[in-house]
Amino acid sequence: MTIQVPADAPTISAAVALAEPGDLVLVAPGVYHETVKIKTPQITLRGESRDKVVIDGQLQQADGVVVTAPGVAVENLTVENNTQNGVLVTGSARAAAGSPESGGDYDTGSEPVNFLNSFLVSYVTATRNGLYGIYAFSAQNGVIEDSYTSGGADSGIYVGQCKPCHIVVRDNIAELNAVGYEGTNASNDMYVVGNRLVGNRVGLTTDSDHQEKLLPQQGAVVAGNLVAANQQAATPEQADGGWGIGIGIDGGSSNQFLHNRVTGNVNAGLEITATQDVPPNDNQILDDVFAGNGLDVGWTFPNATVGQGNCVSGTGLATNPSGLTKTAACPATHQTQSPSGTWSAPTPPAGIPFTTVAAPPVQPQFPNAAGAPATVVPATPTMPDPAGIQVPTASLLAATALVQAS
């Protein structure tokens, strides 16, 4: 059954309350001031127009859409001006209640890990949200695709606390965020592929964090992404002050970085470091294209925690310590201690309030949004084959000039 808003129900929340598994909630253009909480499994929430169906929190609501039921699809709409998240997908009751720590992470205390199984976020625009644009926390078997995030005061897209994740983040655009994509304690069958992470403060991070369960982070595949010009001044400033970094590995292990184009990041194209007492081990940097970065690849361990078994392959790379493509060439044995370097990082400019980040451009529509049936979300998504993922073409860099000039 299709439930139309406002024809059949005056608000999105009212329509969702009427919906049964398999139903489609189809929303007409308009601005909706509500938090939509989806507790019924296997329903589809879809806007008729991605840019004209707007869930606006007015800086008074914590979240735009909160999904706590399996098999739900959220499609073709805009979520903005929420104090925490645009779209939150979670199996954690505490996270759904909205109680983040000061750093933005959800410390769920003694709450047992409970995964939400199967979800889809597609053709969603999430802008000007106080923590994350699209946030999958304590969730498995999902896809975040064809979406656009900007103005995320912590991250545009965030995946946290899943092991194994069985999650694919693909073909999204993240710009003008503090961090474009962040994966914290997100491990095993975790794929970040074909995304455009341009004009943030930091493009992408894979990290371990004691504030979340399932430490340490490990086993992600980051492939075929465009990671460029991540030193945009007109962005929110994350608490850790990252700036000018394309890819950051902070206590993450056994990750593969393949066929990415990493260019024009003024601090470092890719940086590896430790998280407190969690070392980054056995990360592989293979067949990526680096150009125009302050430093292409840098490894630094200023404290006692030092990584092991990290390796990098490539030609003509500017690395610190120098010569990493020879001294730490792939494959490397786990026992090999990673050397540590130091370099001068540029001073980041002060950030701006997330509420003042530039408005997003109009984004592509979900095909036949008004006529297509409800989406059937698979119990387990198909994982990409890294071997078939190509390096993004250099021609895609032309649009970065618009970000840098804005």
UniProtKB/TrEMBL annotation:
- Domain named Right handed beta helix: which ranges? 119-284
Question: Does Repeat show up as a keyword for this record?
Answer: yes
Keywords of the record: Repeat
What is the top-level taxon of the source organism? Answer: Bacteria
Write down the InterPro entries for this protein, in alphabetical order. Beta_helix, PbH1, Pectin_lyas_fold, Pectin_lyase_fold/virulence, SCF-Subunits/Alg-Epimerases
What is the protein's name according to its record? Right-handed parallel beta-helix repeat-containing protein
Q: Which organism is it from?
A: Catenulispora pinistramenti
- Provide the organism lineage as a comma list: Bacteria, Bacillati, Actinomycetota, Actinomycetes, Catenulisporales
